[in-house]
Amino acid sequence: MHLLQRGPRGAQSRAHEHEWWVAVSEAGASLLSSRPARREAILPAASPTRRPHWLDSERLRLYPAVVLICYLVWVLIYLYKAVWHPHEYISPLAIDFLPFWSSSYLALHGHAADAYNLGVLGNVEQNALAHTVGLLPWLYPPTFLLFVYPLALLPWKIAAATFLGGTYALFVRAIRAIVPRREALLIAMAFPGAALVAVSGQNGLLTASLAALGLVLLRRRPVAAGICFGILCMKPHLAVLFPLALLCSRSWRALASLALTAMSMLAISVLVFGGGTLAAFLHNASMAAGYVESGRAALARVPTMFALAKLAHVPSALAYAAQGLSAILAAAAVCYAWGRETSHALRAATLVCASLMVCPYLFDYDLTWYGVLIAWYGKYALESGWKRGEREWLILLWLTPLAGILIVSHVKVQFMPLISAITLWMLVRRIAQQRREPVVLGRHSGE
């Protein structure tokens, strides 16, 4: 009786159990089928988007514009003092241009060798300025005398404005040739290194432009590039590593063009001005070395390892040893960069940086070359991606030319050559990283 009564309940229980399993199976199938959709909805939200770098295009336009406005205000203040306070003597702008003009004046009057005579040159400078001037010697080889030869056909102030304005425009054009972007125009115009050259009246804009244009032309027009490098030999201490780079890269046409241009300019200058100018140049070069070695030169404005050691009261022998080590490391970096295949932008940046680490007699107005270095480094990073901190380091390089006047002269520690050395190390590390990466066709377009 009990079993007969239990049968219907057991059947009912089994029916409920079957229905329950069907419901669970349907729910499980529904859950499994919905899981991909839910995962697609969740995963993007779980991956945080990278924040854009603070130095965006808007700031790259804004900050240089502000700097240019500051330059304009400074010039207006200077002009106000010069015009409204004529009884108070103010040193003229571009005073270092005066030896260029005075040497041209002597050469035009047939006394080119006297450009190396401090007494004769000083009289011409004093007459042009109508005021006593300090020691402003002519320390360049006859090849540069050939370059400045026509300047004295104009009054010295007009000649200075023409020379500095023309080389400033050439520098901006060279930077745009490396990085053809609108931001590059403002950055080059506001570059403190360029402003320092313009205020000083020096030739740093010209030498930086020749180096930049030669490196731009090297791959497609090697002969024209060699001509640029050959003209650069008018400041031989800046051009010494360029033949080494061309030799390592087997750029034979550019190397031959460099040699032919340099030798032709030297031969023409000796024929035009006489062999005495070459001997006088060598004498003045040794005199300049003596000024730097004795500390009579403004070592705060000399961004070399030699000056770093001398400001630290290191003996001259050890200071020269430190500079020699710097030159060896610079040459080794050039051989490493140019001896094997790598990005042309990194090669160019390495050569520019290394060229500032060879000679013990360098001045802060030569750090206009930092502008060329920044352009080439930036070109590579724009194509291949930025590493952390690189943009901030380039900002430091952009500001460094003013450090000698604003900082080193007060703290008496010459740290500028250390900035060049660290930059060279960064470049070599970048080259090593690129060579370890797999080759991707079209990654470096045009290189």
Automatic annotation (TrEMBL):
Signal peptide as annotated in the record: none
Keywords attached to this entry: Cell membrane, Membrane, Transferase, Transmembrane, Transmembrane helix
Pfam family, one: GT87
Subcellular location, principal: membrane
Molecular function in Gene Ontology: hexosyltransferase activity
GO cellular component: plasma membrane
Subcellular location as annotated: Cell membrane
Membrane topology qualifier: Multi-pass membrane protein
Membrane spanning stretches: 60-80, 144-172, 184-217, 223-246, 258-282, 317-338, 345-363, 395-428
InterPro entries for this protein: GT87
Family from the record: Belongs to the glycosyltransferase 87 family.
Protein name stated in the entry: DUF2029 domain-containing protein
Species for this entry: Trinickia fusca
Organism placement in taxonomy: Bacteria, Pseudomonadati, Pseudomonadota, Betaproteobacteria, Burkholderiales
